[in-house]
Amino acid sequence: MKNRENFLNNILPHEFIMRDFSISSDNSDLELLKSALRHRNLAVRHKAADLLREYFRDYSISVFMEAMNDGDWYVRYDAIWSLGQLKETGAIEQLVKALSDPERKVYTIAAEVLTGFEWKPSSFEEKLRYYFARRNFGELIKLGEEAFHLFIEHLNYVPKNWDLACKSAHALGIIGDERSVIPLMEALKFNNMRVNVRVAEALGNIGDRRAFLPLMELLKGEELELDIKVVEALGKIGDERAVEILCRKLKDDEPELRLSAVKALTCLAHIASVEPLMDIIKNDKNLEIKRLAVKALGYIKDPVCVPFLIDLYERRKEDFEDAIVEALSSIQDGRAFSVFLSSLESDRPQVRFLSARALGKAGNREAVPFLLKSLNDEDWCVCSEVIKALGKLKDGRAMEGCKNFIDHKRSYIRKLAVKALGNMGMEASSILLPALKDKHNYVRLSAALALYNMGWHSDDEGLKGDYYFAIRDYKSLLSLGASGVKILVKGLGDSYSIIKDSVEAFIMSLGEETKPVILSALNSKDPQVRSSALKLLGKLGTGEEIIIDYLKDENSSVRRTAAGVLREFPPDSLTIEKLSLLLYDKNQGIRRTAEKTLEKLKKKQKNQLVEKIFPEKISPAKREVFPEDFDDITEDKEYSYDEMIPDIKGEEKKQSEWRSVMDLCNKMPESYYPKNYINIVLYEPKIPPNTGNIARLCAGTGSKLYLVGNLGFSFRDRSLKRAGLDYWHLVNMFYYPSMEELYADFPKGRFYYFSSNMSKPYTAISYKSGDFLVFGPETPGLPASMLKEHEDSSISIPMWGEARSFNLSTSVAVAIYEALRQLNEGWI
Question: Residue 537: how many CB atoms within 10 A of its CB?
Fold first, then answer.
């Protein structure tokens, strides 16, 4: 025992990982690997788990089952993952229990493994926890009233399982039932910040004014994330008492909180917030907040804002043009007309779009000449909005302009042009008539409705036929005689299923007239019409001889349809003979359809034979479940080699996707890496894609990567591996449980600590090969105690304005390339 512990304590992690174990199936090796599962180095743990699965498969199952009860969540995570790799379905009961694990990563991997086992939850508790772990809130909410009460119950789990309480609050917010307001407010008594955030969010989604006072009590200014959620919730519940406090939050130092306050005031749209919003537009330094405040004024719709917005447009058009136009459009004040005309010539398509829409709402026909100039705008979205505006203004001067868009390549614009012309009186009717034959259903329908609203009438049977078909008046269409039937059956080949289905349903409802119409359709030159007609004959159960004739049709899709429809008829020798000829058709799809039809007809023949021999033994109920294929019972099915052997390559790929990235690293010899290099240290990183991106960066720069402390992910995390692409074999990466151990291994190393809270710029350092650049976790950064202890070597990357931080991988890239620029005289 002591020797085993000494061995594990003395061996370096990378030596253990790279060591070529000569495993023999004896207890000493098994016990050694069992102990290594709990080694303080994560890379050693992963290697031990892999070796156990490879050499001690039968024994390892019980080892992993035991490890699922370990106090260290990393150990429990690895054990569950390993059982999934072993496909050990005997562990399902234990895995189901793991769904109740307090650690999110553990119950998430347990649910993932259970999904791989195709396990389905049965009890309500299992469904609740499984769907929670899979983050399937849709299924959770489907659990109904019982789930609702369980969510309420789990709000009291805060002291022992705050994560479950958070999820319950989130689900209740999605459900939006007012019965949950009181329980949600009571959950605030536990004073758990994470739970309070979710509760505030849920109360906002429910929008009940009873939550006003509890939410106000949470606004203590101690936690920014909580304050933001509370402010957003106050806006959603719609209580006017919140206006005063929200206006005060507009002056907060935190830009995110000010932004949330503006959003909340936008929801409330109260006239008392006009002055504070105009003040923030004048004085705030954050452009995003100012733009949102401009839009908020539009929601309030107070005419007092109009002169202010017009003045702002004249002074700061480049920053606020789209927001001002949108706001003035909502207020709908005649004084803004000149702004809309001016912005119609903007360089920005979005502004021109909003201006056209605003002019359409304004209803001022003086805008028509200006809109006609913009009718051929290079941006088709602007063009469509101009057409809409002209249609709303109902001015005949726009008729010629809109006429040019009746045959536009975009069907949406053709439809808008048709609608606009429909508002311009009977004079536009002659322009609309060609649109009755448009290939798109909704263009035809729009034209027909426009003509109907005009009171249009014609004695021309062709025009009337197109009109009746477009407006879907099929009875009137048939009253036109042969010409009407010809137009009707064309609908069987329409590209829009809604038209095709409606025509089919109408034809089938004609009774005695159904078959003559179908026969007329079979004479069509359109193969799609003929195919649809054959299917209708199949539904009628008549015309077998006619369908057989179409097995020789010149069009392959018609022949294939005919072959498929014959399945619905009783088997006879003529049908089988004609279908057999299709087995030699040059079209593979036809041959396959003919084979399937022949199989079905032969099965019908077998069933008919059995019914003749045993008529008294086969009741109608039994006939429904009678085996269709006797071959499945009397003969053993022959499988091909590929069916017998699983897809080995696919299995290997799946296994490699789940491997620890530590197994993939450190594959290159030392001679591969550059002479001048930098060491990157990530202290307790939390987001796996960031670490994966940095690993990829290190691969491309020859830098070494050290991960230290309690990581927020497993080395088997898919998103970690995916972010590093296929560069992991080029990465020199090591894990240390603590900074102290890293310092101990590199007593002469120079360490530089990056933090946005420091003043010394990173460019002030003269870097040397082998220097260590230390970066903290994504949200909090490096601990204040670490920065204070190493204040002389703490540096920062300068930022502009009110920005607080860069993305972790971006910061690492900036630092690496500055260091390499110095080391290599400007080139890596």
Answer: 24
Using DSSP's 3-state secondary structure scheme, residue 676 falls into coil
Q: 515 to each of 478, 482, 484, 491, how far by Cα in Å?
A: 14, 15, 16, 16
DSSP 579-648: HHHGGG-S-HHHHHHHHHHHHHHHHHHHHHHHHHH-TTT--HHHHHTS-S-THHHHSPPPPPHHHHS--H
CB 355 within 8 A of CB 324: no
Token output for 193:
């910040």
Nearest Cα to Cα of residue 467 among 419, 434, 439: 434
Please give the average per-residue pLDDT across 549-561, as a whole number.
89
pLDDT value, residue 24? 53
Burial of 554 (0-12, 13-18, 19+ CB in 10 A): exposed
Alpha helices in 630-745 (DSSP H): 631-634, 641-644, 648-658, 661-664, 688-701, 718-723, 739-745
For the residues 526-536, what does the mean pLDDT come to? 91
127 burial type by CB count under 10 A (0-12 exposed, 13-18 middle, 19+ buried): buried
Please state, in angstroms and rounded to a whole number, the distance separating the CA atoms of residues 265 and 273: 7
Q: How far apart are CA 549 and CA 575, in angstroms?
A: 10
Average confidence (pLDDT) over 441-466 = 90
What's the whole-model pTM score? 0.58
pLDDT digits (tens, 9 = 90+) for 171-199: 888 888 899 999 999 988 888 888 899 99
Token output for 732: 């020199």
Contact 172, 202 (CB under 8 A): yes
**Cα dihedral: 251, 255, 256, 262 (round 10):** 50
pLDDT (tens digit, 9 = 90+) per residue, 579-630? 888 888 888 888 888 888 888 888 877 776 555 554 544 444 333 333 333 3
Q: Are 177 and 148 in contact (CB under 8 A)?
A: yes
The CA-based dihedral angle spanning residues 308, 314, 315, 321, taken in that order and rounded to the nearest 10 degrees = 90
CB-based contacts of 80: which residues, under 8 Å, 6+ apart? 64, 68, 95, 98, 106, 109, 110, 113
Q: For residue 704, list its beta bridge partners.
A: 679, 732
C-beta of residue 547 within 8 angstroms of C-beta of residue 565: yes
